[in-house]
Fold these 2 entries.
Entry 1:
Amino acid sequence: MEPRKASQSLTILTDLVLPSETNPLNNLFGGELLARMDRAASIAARRHCRRITVTASVNHVAFNKSIALGSVVTVEAKISRSFNSSMEIFLDVWVEDRESGNRSKANEAIYTFVAVDDSGRPVQVPAVIPETDLEIERFKGALRRKQLSLVLAGKMKPNDATELKALFME
Ligand SMILES: CC(C)(COP(=O)(O)OP(=O)(O)OC[C@H]1O[C@@H](n2cnc3c(N)ncnc32)[C@H](O)[C@@H]1OP(=O)(O)O)[C@@H](O)C(=O)NCCC(=O)NCCS
């Protein structure tokens, strides 16, 4: 299976915040943002492996800044690393200033997707080639994040999470 560049999975979704998507403070609902990120991540995962992909885990979400009604929100999704059937997808969320057009980072998240066959059984995916400094940094940290996610889900014993344990020994 040919490895693929991380950049080949890049997915960019841009959309407005409408009144039906806001909370009583007129800011975007967290759940609406999660759904937008899930969609973008799903497309990025599919672009990497060209298979059916399902969300296995939402590993990390930071709602650092609220996003106001009427904002133009851009969700960027890109694969950071693949393993056997699973793929870690990074999401960066940007908000565009109406007057200047400048973008500022509002939120970020990390999702795990798994490629499956028509019966829902996991299948192998191509390896990832990271190129930029950020892609390489995210690639390097992916194994310990996978182990943390598996430990929290009760699918891995903490003792077996060698990469994760090494982080605490440093
Ligand atoms: C995701 C799913 C396919 C995993 O199936 P499974 O029987 O647990 O298969 P496995 O144990 O072989 O795991 C498959 C891969 O997922 C990874 N994985 C499973 N749970 C994970 C978690 N919580 N965090 C990170 N990775 C996880 C495994 O490590 C494995 O990765 P690898 O093949 O790259 O090593 C299965 O749980 C599923 O179909 N879930 C429902 C998905 C869905 O419907 N999502 C939308 C929810 S509304």
Entry 2:
Amino acid sequence: MKPFPVFEKVDIAIERALGCFVYDKQQQAYLDLYGGHAVISVGHSHPHVVEETIQQMNKIGFYSNAVTNDLQDRLAERLGNACGYPTYAVFYSNSGAEANENALKLASFHTGRRKVLAMSNAFHGRTSAAVSATDIRSIRAPLNDSEQFVFTPFNEISSLKKQLETEEYCAVIIEPIQGVGGIHRASPSFLQEVRAICTKTGTMLILDEIQCGYGRTGRFFAHQHAGIEADLITVAKGIANGLPMGATIISPKIKPVMGQLGTTFGGSHVVCAAALAVLDVIQKEQLIDNAAAVGEFLLTELRKIHGVSEVRGQGLMIGVEFENDIQHLREELLFSEKIFTGYAGRYTLRLLPPLCFTINHAETFLKSLRKLVQKEELADDVSVY
Ligand SMILES: Cc1ncc(COP(=O)(O)O)c(C=O)c1O
């Protein structure tokens, strides 16, 4: 048997990692500005997370959700305080898609409504309702195409208002910064207006913070820059620094009903121990402030690079759009400069480094990027003659 080949892969096998670096089999180091797709929040193989996880595995890694798990309670309390939603509840799952699936279901159970309003260019995951709310035609199977899911232009309030005023929608779901869609920020005024319309029309506001949350933008949640609160917030990726975990954070106005949601693996002892250790590190090493400061430095310096048409994002979630196709540039960054980056479309580099990324790391990256951009420009000039 072989893995089902659905990913385009780079031919580098990562064997180990530490901090902001990953290493291949030949022990070649690569600076990681991709963070395993925004998953590595506190740095690879962080000793505190490793230690707490191993200790927990030696005690118990998993038991059913049919018994009390104190770690779930401890994590809920710590997370509630850390993220600024101490009165909300949390439902644990195993991935971002599941976190969104549960948020959408809760919104529908709570309101009794069927329709969902999602944004143009949105990405919310690949399970049933999550992919129906995802604006990428090619990843929606025919069975996921549903008239209950309607798309409205991102950052455009009038059509959203018109839809929600029908009072047919259980939820509107928004990424405060679209990731897969190309690092586009929802403007604070858009989020504030959406909040007001949701309150007026009894629609649940779901904010998908799976990629942009957990400290990445310099606040715990990206939507907190707009000074609003959501009814449901979804997180995953960085929550357990690479162990599979998702969570749906739920307003007290949504009451729990026994048996309505469920999961076998969600909130296991070992992932909760890892997630608690992640919160320890985020706080002890002040990684949210670090993300803000290093992100600001990168945003400023990237804007000065010739050939860059736009730099978007906030904190350590950055999109660098170029005038030309970036495929060759990314390959050069990876194979010559030994730097991992992500991408969104053909023209945008997507940077999602661990939150412990330093100014020194940023300078190393900028130096390589400037050098390659200049080299490509020279090559272009020569080809003119
Ligand atoms: C904004 C957003 N929502 C949801 C998901 C889906 O998360 P997962 O792949 O863990 O299911 C992703 C993954 O990239 C994402 O970026």
